[in-house]
Amino acid sequence: NIEKQHQRDGHNCLYCGVVMHDYLNCHCIYCAIEKEDCEHEHLFEYGYCLCGERDSTQNNWIEIAYINDLYEFNRRVNAGNYWLNARVVNDIIVNDCLLNPFGNLNPKIIKEWTPLGDYEHPYMGSFDGNRHTINGLYYKKNQSYAGFVAYNKGIIKNLGIKDSYFYSEYDYLGSICGVNNGLIENCYNESCVVDGGNQPSNTAKAYYVGGICGINNKTITKCHNSSSVVAQDYLGGIAGLNNGEISLCYNISENIHGSNTIGGISGANKNTIINCYNTGGVFGSQYMGGISGLSENGSIANCYNTGYILGWQIVDWICGSTRGECSIVNCYYNECNDVDEPEFATGEIAYKLQEPNTTHVWGQRIGVDKYPQLMGDTIYYYANNYTNTPPSLDNCVSIASNNNSPAIYTLDRNIYVDNANDTVILNDINGITIDTKTGSSLQFEVQKIGIYVVITEGKGYKVIIK
To answer: pTM for the full model?
Structure first.
């Protein structure tokens, strides 16, 4: 019997296949596993050591101004620098005019994109698009976890993806990332195709596909989708499945198309969707809704849908079906006579959507905007009328020009009254008393933006909380 010694062939023995770690700086160069009881001196490359320690002497940001910068950043991240930060300083074009006006690929030489990170090595840095766009990303491979980022555990913000194509017959696909376990903020896609295996058989195969990400496990906020999303099951304009929180997001794409569990915002919801809307088209077979196709032990609040929903069964304008402990509150739609079109146009729905919020979220330019807008113009309601104009209150003094006693001022969501010689009454814009206090130095905490009236010593003082 001849015993053969192990002979390395990369990460494994050539003869028996046993894993053979090769350590550098206490980490295997092949799989990055850490060697036990190993002390090392940090060797920094691009601002980080292989162990993840950040170099405090550097700002650790890479500026991306050109396509070569983008692909060099991609190379560094996928070489093991998963904590690397980047900031885009110009709009980047990878493939010019990648898609024609019908959403089909133009026949020409295409530069491919490899997503940042993967399931075993998530992207953990901060990528700031700086309100710029990346145009013409092309990805077509049959593997799970795909998008601009494969698996995100960091921060992706202020980024627009345009004129791009993402295709996979495997699960977890989105324009921003396949799976989000971090923060996605103020991102969008436009004139893109997110295709879960619809070509060439015209039968999509992938599950968990979204305009922004396939599965959200943490936070997506201030994002929107206006691109085509096609998959088999669990697909939505923002996410295929939401296990975290989706807020201040909207979908305007007219083609969210699949088989089962489809929503304008999320295919399925198992946590929170709040302050979102859909005006796009949702098409499929069953478990379909304007906001979510299915909500399981989830919450949907302060949302509206005006988009068209076409399916065979278990279809609803807000949520197709619910399971477990679910709540759907303060949500509106304009089909089947739930809400008439004029109620949207007059600002009434925008006002009702805003009411539960303590900061400004919903508004509308009455006479211009057909529907409520996130961060739109403030709506006031008085004299049985919805308006963008703050009311002029008879016999009231604006505190901005008030130099007399008492002293009234605001800070955050608080109204302060000093040097009061009489009882102080706080009313809302409709004259309803909120609170009454006596004393020389008083504080009133309010929950909503709007106009309030402080009454004391026989005078009224107008206070505006923004």
So the answer is: 0.77
